[in-house]
Write a structure and sequence with these properties.
Rossmann fold, Arc Repressor Mutant, subunit A, 3 domains, nine-stranded mixed β-sheet, 17 helices, 42% helix, globular
């Protein structure tokens, strides 16, 4: 057992030159139980000695071996066996001394060549720290580690909407302005709230919280149209809750209050419409700011095991506005692309488990059964899945590619041979052969396909 007080005590003069005193004591103490015990006891009485004294490489190495050697001599145990010994020991003084000695050992910073010894000392200190002596608070780790065997037992993620949105994940839905983003979001939300299949995709019924940050003044007509189309007028879902003000989710206090306020609802789906309104005053192009938003979405998800979807705008180039950390750090990224005045394409930019095939929804006008203040019938749109083949979208900035594609679209259903297509391109557009070949090469990647000797628009 160690003596509770050191047998070596520094004088006032030695304290003034503590570095030389430490060097002297390191050299004097030998690796036997008594001397090593004295060194540990010295650490008990002067706990800051290793924080305040600059110890060079040779001194650090010597100090390390003195302390760890003492622990080995005292226990004759490996770190794993030491835990058992500490649990079974009735000698609280020894347990306390071992606990403190290990903490002292972890403070030593030996030279680079003794890095392995440093890791072992820290491992031993952590092992003892997790089993404190009686009377000390139980150790509460900040981070919970799990064995791989436990991870493998976890259930596989399940779908909120089959092949579209997973439960307990986050998603980003982006589009240009006036591309029916809110129509699509409401369609998704109402399907979840009522358990209605989403255009042929199975849906898990659940509570919905919809943050309508741009105001709910247009929501009445759109929801009424949806309910009319699905024969639910007068039987609206009671598990669909709307918040008509923005929630600044990147603010810690606001986020905490929001999670607390919806806790009794236990939502399956939370929709943020739009992300810009719920992230006011922050730089969308800054990685740090947008990472904060993604983390906030993750906290909402973790609180309820729900899906959190954010509606966001595209930039001028047609990609998600702001830092790329936003689409890259969410689990699913869906882009909406307008195909015509009343049709929109759903495109999967990213889905962690499986991408879904593109599909098109077409808007249908619905008479809502009431009139405005001027006596005109009020209508709105609902969306239905289209069976019409998808026409690939292409940037209008690349005029030659667009015109070349239009020639192919106007051709017979079999398509055009390369020679016939090139002849049309030269006749109609004055396109040179080299330009034609380059544009065809670009179009092959996504927009066209070759069947035998014929090129035609790819049907998705």
């Amino acid at each position: 057992m160690l003596n509770p007080q050191p047998t070596v005590t520094p004088t006032a003069t030695q304290s003034q030159s503590s570095a030389s005193y430490t060097q002297h004591e390191t050299a004097r103490l030998s690796a036997n139980e008594t001397a090593a015990g004295d060194y540990i006891a010295l650490g008990f009485s002067y706990p800051d000695i290793f924080d305040t004294v600059p110890i060079d490489a040779s001194e650090a190495e010597g100090a390390y071996f003195e302390i760890v050697g003492a622990l080995n001599l005292l226990t004759k145990k490996t770190p794993a066996a030491l835990v058992k010994k500490l649990r079974e020991s009735a000698d609280e003084q020894q347990r306390r001394q071992l606990h403190e000695a290990a903490e002292i050992a972890a403070k030593i910073k030996p030279a680079a060549q003794t890095a392995n010894h440093t890791r072992e000392a820290r491992r031993l200190a952590a092992t003892i720290k997790k089993n404190p002596p009686a009377g000390q608070p139980a150790y509460k780790p900040r981070f919970k580690l799990e064995k791989l065997s436990e991870i493998l037992k976890q259930p596989r993620p399940t779908w909120l909407i089959q092949d579209l949105l997973l439960r307990d994940t986050t998603s980003l839905i982006t589009a240009d302005y006036a591309t029916y983003k809110t129509f699509a979001a409401l369609d998704i939300a109402l399907c979840v709230a009522t358990g209605t299949p989403f255009h042929g995709m199975e849906v898990k019924w659940g509570n919905v919280v919809y943050i309508c940050a741009e105001g709910a003044f247009t929501m009445k007509d759109r929801v009424t149209a949806w309910l009319t189309r699905h024969h639910m007028n007068g039987n609206e879902p009671q598990n669909f809750d709307v918040l008509q003000v923005p929630v600044q989710i990147a603010d810690d206090d606001t986020l905490r209050d929001f999670i607390s306020d919806i806790a009794d609802l236990a939502p399956e789906l939370v929709i943020i419409d739009t992300l810009a309104r719920c992230n006011a005053g922050r730089d969308e192009n800054a990685v740090e700011a947008m990472s904060k938003v993604v983390n906030a979405m993750g906290e909402i998800r973790a609180a309820f095991g729900c899906h959190v979807a954010a509606i966001h705008h595209n930039n001028k180039s047609g990609t998600a506005r702001g830092s790329s950390s936003l689409p890259s750090d969410t689990d699913t990224h869906i882009t909406l692309k307008k195909q015509s005045k009343f049709s929109v394409l759903f495109h999967c930019d990213k889905q962690k488990f499986r991408d879904f095939d593109d599909f098109v929804l077409v808007g249908r006008e619905v008479d809502l059964g009431y009139k405005d203040e001027y006596g005109r019938e009020v209508t709105s749109l609902i969306f239905e899945k289209s069976d019409v083949p998808i026409v690939p979208t292409i940037s209008t900035k690349d005029k030659s590619r667009l015109e070349l594609l239009e020639i192919l679209q106007s051709a017979p259903s079999d398509g055009l041979t390369s020679g016939a297509w090139q002849a049309r391109a030269f006749k109609d557009l004055g396109m040179a052969e080299s330009t034609f070949k380059q544009k065809v090469k670009e179009l092959k990647a996504q927009e066209i396909e070759k069947i035998g000797n014929f090129f035609r628009v790819k049907v998705k």
